[in-house]
Amino acid sequence: MREVPDAPAAHLRVRPGSGGGRAQALHLPLRYTVEDIELPGGTTTARGEAVLASYAAGRRPARYGDSGADFDVTRPTKDRLVFGHGPHFCLGAPPDRVEGQTALRMLFDRFPGLAPAPRTEPRPVDSLVSDGHRTLPVLLGEPAPQG
User: Fold this and answer.
1) What whole-number distance in Å separates Cα of residue 69 and Cα of residue 58?
2) 3-state secondary structure 85-106
3) Which pTM value belongs to this model?
4) Distance (Å, rounded) from C-alpha 108 to C-alpha 65?
5) What pLDDT does 109 receive?
6) Phi, psi angles (nearest 5°) of residue 133
7) Which of 47, 25, 29, 30 is nearest to 38 (CA)?
8) Comparing C-alpha atoms, which of 126, 119, 122 is closest to residue 135?
9) What letter does residue 13 receive in the DSSP assignment?
10) Does the pLDDT value for residue 127 go beyond 50?
11) Backbone angles phi and psi of 103, in degrees to 5
12) CA distance linking residue 140 with residue 147, whole number of Å
């Protein structure tokens, strides 16, 4: 974690619904257009129509190439929509980022040998609107000396 401080940001861009350890919506919030909006490709969304935003849009190939969906902590562009945008940007985003970075730093400092358990897979949450895992098998390894 110390070598790659942007790992949480990269994770949130690739897996937007699993940030902060809480189940978050992948395709919410539902909004209504206040004017006609012409979309790329010629489709128009009429005033008053419902629009379902996708937080996963931060990984689209048109902007990021074929590797857009890949977890890449070295990606120069850190764009993501998991915390909203503009006037709808989440006020809790900065403390959530600090909390996540602090917790991960403490976890990896305490268990420097932490690794995924071999021959196991995370068990996902069964949901259409949220993302995350019921289980995430790991091997803690030896704890670091305290003191």
Assistant:
1) 9
2) CHHHCCCCHHHHHHHHHHHHHH
3) 0.60
4) 32
5) 93
6) -130, 140
7) 47
8) 122
9) H
10) yes
11) -60, -45
12) 19
Per the CB < 8 A criterion, the answer to whether 139 and 115 are in contact is yes
For 60, phi then psi, to 5°, come to: -70, 140
Region class of 92: left (phi > 0), else alpha (psi between -120 and 50), else beta: alpha
- Give the C-alpha distances (Å, rounded to integers) separating 111 from 7, 56, 76, 107: 17, 31, 29, 6
The single-letter DSSP state of residue 135 is E
Residue with tokens 């091997």: 139
> Which pLDDT band, with edges at 50, 70 and 90, does 54 fall under?
low
| Per-residue CA distances from 66 to 14, 128, 130 (Å) | 13, 25, 25
Query: Do the Cβ atoms of 6 and 97 come closer than 8 Å?
Result: no
Q: Which of 16-30, 58-72, 95-109 has the lowest mean pLDDT?
A: 16-30
Nearest Cα neighbor of 108 from 21, 16, 7, 22 is 7
Residue 128 or residue 49, greater confidence: 49
Q: Residue 91 pLDDT > 70, yes or no? A: yes
